[in-house]
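Technical note accompanying the year-one report. For the benefit of new consortium partners, we illustrate the data format agreed upon in the data management plan: each record pairs a sequence with a structure-token string. No post-processing was applied to the example shown here.
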Amino acid sequence: MLQPPPARPGQPESEIDTPALVLDLDAFEHNLDRMAALLAPTGARLRAHAKTHKSPVIAHLQLARGAVGQCVQKTAEAEILAWAGVPDILVSNEVIAPAKLARLAALARITRIAVCADDLAGIAAIEAAAEAARTRLTVLVEIDAGAGRCGVTPGPEAVALAQRIAGSPHLCFGGLQAYQGSAQHRRSPAERAALIGTAVEGARRTVEQLRQQGIACPIVGGGGTGSFALEAASGVFTEIQAGSYIFMDADYGRNLDETGAPVSTFRQSLFVLSQVMSAPRPGIAVLDAGHKAVAVDSGLPLVWNRPDLRFVSASDEHGKLEAAPETTSPKLGEKLRLIPGHCDPTVDRYDWYVGVRGGVVECLWPVAARGAMG
């Protein structure tokens, strides 16, 4: 059930009801502009990943800064964006269920829609949906870029699937999907470069073999917040699918450069605002934000601008803090910003973004695709 907004425009941040998903608009806009500036000289285009933000409002802000479209993981996410006027959407994932493919085919009447496949049976299912809807669907062949998840082996197997797609009157071959997810959180630049180097070589080889068969490859897509600079500089990848850069999180903050410093020039813009609900003894405080308020799959959250406080454990509705010795413990009722370990599943816990600038609530945006798993 959609929850009422936890704030209203014009309120001070201190009056936001907690827990709440707070977006620092200055940092957020910096991140939007920074990605556009970084990609501009490379020739690679941004197809930002909406599985991070789940918001047509944010999608349109990215499009306004030059993004060519959005990618999603689920049919339901594609529907939310298409109904809100996003003009170009890639489901960067396989879709097999006939009912979901029928929904994608219906979207092709109102937006440019594409989907991935890594199997002949999957291609046949997409083809049947397109034929039934009397439309054409664009299909990208997903290659295994090294993560060992979805995708066929680069080279002849991928070329054979592309030939099958290109030969169908109901389908259009759109290119290759080559996302290397396991590279995104490798801490050292050498580790990231090695993994992305393998992905680039596999994609390059496949593109060349497609060319030899007379098949153009308009899109080679992949790249995430942890590796996009490598794909963008490769001369092979044409589209970058980074998503978390707009928000950042504690886990991406642990990626390092050659000097051992944090590599990212993006700013932390997404927070969970929480409140001290109990201060039972010195050095201990309990927040109203636990598992249900902030994702912990990539580690416990950090307390923003309070290195003296450590978030040490979470239960469903409680987050326990420990204060460093000789530090003033948070007081009952005090509000603190938390940096989530993983931004994507944290966003999916909320109905609203509360946009804040200069300590004042400026806007409320619905997390329109929250829970869109179908």
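Partners are asked to follow this layout when depositing records. The mean pLDDT is 97.
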